Amino acid sequence: MNNQPLQILPKFIWRSVVQAIILAVLVGILLSFVYGFVHHYQQKHRHIQQLAALLTSSASTIDGADTVAKQVSIVLAAEPNIQSILFYSTPQPIADIDRFTAYQSHDDWQNALFSDTVSFNYPVVSDDITTDSAATIATTEQTDKPLSDNMIDPPDLEALTDDSTLVGYINITLDVDKLRANWLRSNLLLWLITTILAVIWMLYILRKLSWPVKDIAALTDVCEIVSKHPELEQLPVISQQFKFQELLQIKQTFTVLFDRLQKAQQDYEALAVFEQQLHHKDLSLNVQLHNFQSMITHELKTSLNAIVGGLQILDDERLSDEQKDALDIIRNGSEKLVLSLDQIIQLNQIQKGQISIHSSEFNPLQLIADLLVDFESIAKQKGLTLLSHVYHIDYTLEGDVEKIKQVLSILLSNAIKFTPVGQVSITSQLTHFDNSNRWQITIKDTGIGIDSDYIEDIFNPFFQVDSSQTRQYEGTGIGLPVVKQIAQLMSATIEVESTLGVGTQFMFTIPLPNKHQVHQQNLLAGLVVVYYYIHETGFLVDELQRLGAVVICHQQGHLVIDELNTRKVDMVMFAEDVPSSNAEVIAKRIRQFESYESEYRALLVYWYAPDQAQYLDSFEHGLKAAGIDYCHSAAYDDKALSDLLKSWLIWA
Predict the structure, then answer these.
(1) Strands (DSSP E) along 590-641, which ranges?
(2) 272-277 contacts: CB < 8 A, separation 24 or more?
(3) Measured by CB atoms within 10 angstroms of the end CB, which terminus of the chain is less buried, N or C?
(4) CA 149 and chain centroid, separation
(5) In degrees rounded to 5, what are phi and psi of residue 605?
(6) Crossing angle, helix 580-596 and helix 616-626, to 10 degrees?
(7) What are the pLDDT digits (tens) for 513-559?
């Protein structure tokens, strides 16, 4: 993993450029020093050659000793860099000089940079002097010391003719260290001026470099402001002092992206407002739908009751057979219509949260036996075989026996209705766990089956499969939606497996408490709770029902007020997904309603999410001012919940 710290771009640019400039200055000074000194050394070498030519010319004459001596004195006084001038008297060429000088004759760079001293040897050739008198013209005393490796410039032996005589060699030794020191002193001022100019040039470059760096820093500051303040509606001004094309493109791109983000934010807010309007509209339509269903079912039920009552008072003995048949048709139709209306009313009540669970002990074997008795005659009329398979012993369970029987009755009725030939079977399986029981009832038929495309739709109210096979069967499409709603009310599940033309199987699985849970259900027995929520009821409703409380759930505030008007409610709970502002409004309406129309006072409890505990002070005061009695975190278990509710009820 790369753990290197993030670098700041302007700082990185400054550091890199300064390092590059310093390196360039150092390299430039070093190269200028080396090249300048080597050039100075080469000039000095040529000057020494000129002096050597003068000295050898003087030394080649018979009376040139005094002249050479004077010239040497003048040269040594005028050239402090020359260490010594020697004369070697010899009649024969020296081979070592040839070898050494041939190897290093052009190595000016090495001699100039690394040598301490350098010796130059020049032959003295004369047509007038013989070898016998050569010693008399020596300008310095003769020495037999070895020749230095730094001897350069080979003698011009080719200049010797038959009449010429090699008298000896003039050796001029140059003090290179002293030459370097003198050259450095003489050029110190020039170097200083050059360095100052280089520094000034570097500062100028850095000043020019600061232009894009300042613009980059301005962009960085704006980016930091935008990232720390997402609520900004307008982009801060991006100051650009210098017109760099790349930075202008970055600025324009940043501006375009910010505008797009603002446009997207506006679209999102508009969409949220529209969604809220749709939500309120849906709630209003739901309220109107429920009101319409209540009104129409009430009116139809009243009229049907009158019809059924009128049919019951008719005296069958005075009617003819044809009249009796017509009366039976009317009676059967009215009974079916009454059953459909009862199911619609029940579905409407479940959706409004007006249906609760009433548990009692029952025998599952007896319940199945009663169902078989009720549907045996109907199955025989169609020529169907009604079978039962029970895979458990006699046992006593605790649950809402009426609703369980209603669900199984609807499933058996549909199985028989949609099975022209074959059989219908009911299978009962009971599984015991440590803390609960699971009862699974499977109803299987050999009927027409259901297309897989419609499996999910059969639980929608008034849905009819668009097929000629099903159109011939009567039904309003309300039975299975009632089954689904009752199953959810009892925390049960309903599963369907079907093959078109082969048959259908419904599996109804319901969890039921054991004796320990039955005891727990008495902890809040008799407590009536209205639960107001927005999206989901959550775990709290299941816990309250399991502890024996009667829980009525609503998603509309006016339904909560209506519930208080129809029954005595001990407690109104606001779910954790209800905003505190909504809870304040509904709490004020409840308290106003109680002050005018109610003879009792309900306990109001607001549950807030655990992660909102740190913000409790910001909304608790407003909630309690509106009439909320308690604000509590939605973190609880069954025993703690029952104790908490009982303590609140005692203090209330």
Answers:
(1) 603-608, 630-633
(2) none
(3) N
(4) 77
(5) -130, 130
(6) 20
(7) 765 444 455 667 778 889 998 877 777 887 787 777 888 888 888 88
pTM for this model (two decimals): 0.42
How far is residue 281 from each of residues 274, 276, 537, 639, measured CA to CA in Å?
A: 10, 8, 21, 41
Give which of 542, 482, 486, 540 is closest to 513, Cα–Cα.
542
Q: What DSSP state is assigned to residue 150? A: T
In the predicted structure, residue 407 carries a pLDDT above the cut 50: yes
564-620 residue pLDDT tens: 888 888 889 998 888 888 899 899 888 888 877 667 788 899 988 887 888 888 888
Q: For residue 511, what is the enclosing H or E element?
A: strand 503-513
Look at residue 144 and tell me whether its pLDDT is greater than 80.
no
Helix (H, G, I), strand (E, B) or coil at 236: coil
Residue 146 CB-density burial (10 A; 0-12 exposed, 13-18 middle, 19+ buried): exposed
Give exposure, 462-497, as e/b (b: 16+ Cβ within 10 Å): eeebeeeeeeeeebebbbbbbbbbbbebbebebeee
Q: Quick check: 607 and 574 in contact, CB under 8 A?
A: yes
Q: Which comes out higher in pLDDT, residue 98 or 432?
A: 432
Angle of helix 245-313 relative to helix 321-352, nearest 10 degrees? Answer: 140
What the block records as the tokens of 608 is 């807030």
Contact 447, 410 (CB under 8 A): no
Indicate the burial class of 261 (C-beta count within 10 angstroms; 0-12, 13-18, 19 or more): middle
Cα separation values, 447 from 62, 417, 422, Å: 149, 9, 8
CB 513 within 8 Å of CB 523: no
- The encoded tokens of residue 22 equal 């310093």
Residue with token string 């049960």:
492
Q: How do beta strands 117-126 and 165-175 pair?
A: antiparallel
Per the CB < 8 A criterion, the answer to whether 85 and 158 are in contact is no
Residue keyed to tokens 């001699």: 111
Question: How many CB atoms sit inside 10 A of residue 105's CB?
Answer: 12
Q: How far apart are CA 641 and CA 616, in angstroms?
A: 20
